[in-house]
Structures are given as structure tokens and as C-alpha cells.
Amino acid sequence: IDIRKATKIFKTKNNTIQAVDDVNLHIREGEIFGVIGYSGAGKSTLIRMLNGLEQPSSGEVVIGEDVISSMTRSNLLRKRQKVSMIFQHFNLLWSRTVADNISFPLEIAGVPKKERARRVAELVELVGLTGREDNYPSQLSGGQKQRVGIARALSNRPEVLLCDEATSALDPETTDEVLDLLVKIRDEMDLTIVLITHEMHVIRKICDRAAVMENGRVVETGPVIKLFQNP
Ligand code: ADP
Ligand code: ADP
């Protein structure tokens, strides 16, 4: 993943906000890369550029061979299957079971029913929700809900997983369980993970490298052991 001189300006009625300001980042295949910063630093806007939910006002976003920042809408929709996302509040469909939530992106992609069932069974086992297939999200704990979110995000076999404050709504113990799961799927599935967080613990526990954002700018970047070692 290459982010080159990316800037994002939001114009509202009364003011102009530079949410992302001339950011350059290179994220390596297979790494877990963290972006940390206070609320309002520009983390969400930056990560949303990686799946085309936001287009940069200037600069370029490249994933593999694809210049995400200049793609047409239909190509972007196809590419988005290769770049999945999980969220702080899980964004599950509340009227659908665990199995149907995980299967949903596959239905949209037109995957045949038998193949959907096969993949759902695989994913349920991978994320440790065996026996919960027919539960509704309201019957699950926060950690279990995020496991459904992760399984759903993996259903289309993405190359990149984006995590937007994915453990911020969870207690410390559950946070660690979900972080362990992210490391496991990175190791087993040839995945690159980009996560944003305001919690140092998350960065220290699973990230290989990280960037620190302040006021739309990346003010530091490097391996986590170097970035946060005490002087
Ligand atoms: P973070 O994820 O680090 O909390 P955000 O990327 O959400 O930061 O926001 C960065 C800045 O951009 C904030 O000042 C926010 O209010 C502003 N911003 C984000 N999205 C929009 C939008 N759609 N319209 C106007 N301003 C926005
Ligand atoms: P349907 O599949 O019938 O369109 P949903 O499953 O999306 O409906 O939503 C069912 C109910 O759950 C709605 O009242 C909706 O507002 C609520 N809901 C959906 N998503 C969320 C969410 N992420 N957080 C809280 N409530 C939600």
C-alpha cells in the first residue's frame, strides 16, 4: 500500500478542514500497521481512502497495481471486495443470524448457496463461534459480535483488512482476545492489516510498524519497538 502526498480537504458551509495533510506512507504486504492519534487527528479519513470511501483532494493511494484514488465507481466496488473493513460498533445486521451476517457479502457478490455455506462454516470455526451460527447479534457479547464482524470481513477473501477502532468498545480482556485473533488470521490468510486506534496498548500488542498522526499529519513513523521505546 502506498499513500503518496495525500491530502483531504472538507469544505463545509462555514469553514474548511484539512483532515489529512500531505501524508506519505508505505505499508508492506503482510504487516500489521497501526495508525495512532487523538480524536480528530485524521485517522478515519486516512483509512477510508484505502477502500475508496473517501477520495483524496490531491495525491495518490495505491494498493498493489491499483490506483484506488483514480478508480471508476464500478472498478472500486470490485476492488472493495479485496479491501474489507471492521468497525468499532460492529455494523452487523440485527435482524440476521450470525451465519447470515457472514454470508451477506457473498450473496451480494453472487456466490452460489452451497459455496456460501461452505465458507461460512469455515469462517465460523476460524473465529471461534462454532455453535453460535443461528444466534442473533443481540444474543452475543461484544467480543463475539466483533468476531462476526471479522468473519464477515474475511468472507470475500480480502487482501487487506482495515480496522477502525475495532476494539475500542470492548473491555481489556476481550480486546486482547480479538487482537490475538487478528494476528492469527494475518498469519493464516496472507493478509495485510491496517488498524487505527487511540490506544497505545493495541499498537504495542500487535503492530509491526506504526504511524503517529496529529492534525492531519504523520509526525512519526517506524517499527513499534523503536517508536515507543523509552529514551
Ligand atoms: P479521527 O479518525 O482521527 O478521529 P477524522 O478523520 O474522523 O479523525 O477527522 C479529522 C477531521 O476531519 C476532524 O476535524 C473532522 O471533524 C473532520 N471531518 C471528518 N469527516 C468530515 C466530513 N465528512 N465533513 C467535514 N469534516 C469532516
Ligand atoms: P433489515 O435487515 O431488516 O433492513 P437491520 O438488521 O439493518 O434491518 O436493522 C434492524 C434494526 O436494528 C433496526 O431497528 C436498526 O436501526 C437496528 N440496527 C441496525 N444496525 C445497527 C447498529 N449497527 N447499531 C445499532 N442498531 C442497529
TrEMBL record:
Cell membrane listed as a keyword: yes
Domain ABC transporter intervals: 4-231
Keyword Nucleotidyltransferase: no
GO MF annotation, one: ATP binding
UniProt keyword list: Amino-acid transport, ATP-binding, Cell membrane, Ligase, Membrane, Nucleotide-binding, Translocase, Transport
Protein name, entry field: Methionine ABC transporter ATP-binding protein
Organism whose genome encodes this protein: Salinicoccus bachuensis
